[in-house]
Amino acid sequence: MFGQSRISRCAALVLLNSSSTLVVAQIPLLLPQITVTAARVMRSDFDTPRATTVIGQKEIQRANTSRTPDLLRYAQGVYIQNTNLGGGSPFIRGLTGKQVLILVDGVRLNNSFYRFGPHQYLNTIDPNLIKRIEVVRGPGSVLYGSDALGGVINIITKRRTDFSSSADLGGLIEGRYDSGVDGGSARAQVEGNRSDIGFIGGVTGKIFDDLEGGDGVGEQVPSGYDELDADLKLNWRADEHSEFIVA
């Protein structure tokens, strides 16, 4: 009897020690990347029959730039032509201007008021507001019209819930100087939410010096400029399936 009791206590002790060292590995779940530009409905990259590149938060933070055209350098098959500091015209499949469609939250940026297209005005969109950029290479005229002959660039901006602050009202003040272009930018932003209503608003100012040409060309005067941009975005979630956005 004494021997059996001792064996039982030893077995219980072994089981107790074994359970205390048991570790369950957590396997991360990677969700498929979703795009909406290529087919105008939500689909994963694998199910999209078009050449698509998504520039996400990782690439945007790594770029650390105040100029939105610089972010498109991360997109395969996109060439950026810089005709002045801060500006940039994207080329897709050898086409640019009014043959490459630019959307902001799915709303067409192209219009007849710009020169050959709005692409020198991409820098008016502050990179701090961008959640991701979807680039579709190749003709998209069936879905979007004749100005999508070369491709489509859809800039999707952040919502109030995309910012780290959990307070009802928050904001930021940011400034930067770029010695490479002898220019800088500053932004003041405020965001807030109350129940089902949220908003983001801000003002961005930029200063760019004259472009310095290479091979003895010298300073290109006047190519520098000052810029002041303002933005406001309101969203109201009516129910689980409906949301209204005004920007």
Which features does this protein show?
disordered N terminus; 14% helix; mainly beta; 2 domains; globular; 5-stranded antiparallel β-sheet; Ferric Hydroxamate Uptake Protein, Chain A, domain 1; 247 residues; 4 helices
Task: Produce a short descriptive summary.
With 247 residues, the chain is mainly beta. It has four helices and 16 strands.
Task: Explain what you see.
By secondary structure, this protein is mostly beta strands. The protein folds into two domains: 127 residues, TonB-dependent receptor, plug domain (Ferric Hydroxamate Uptake Protein, Chain A, domain 1, Beta Complex), CATH 2.170.130; 84 residues. It has four helices and 16 strands. The strands form five sheets. A five-stranded mixed sheet has the order 3-8-9-6-7. The protein has a five-stranded antiparallel sheet with strand order 10-11-12-15-16, with no helix packed on it. A hairpin with a 2-residue loop joins β11 and β12. The longest helix has 19 residues. It is globular and about 60 Å long. The protein starts with a helix and ends with a strand.
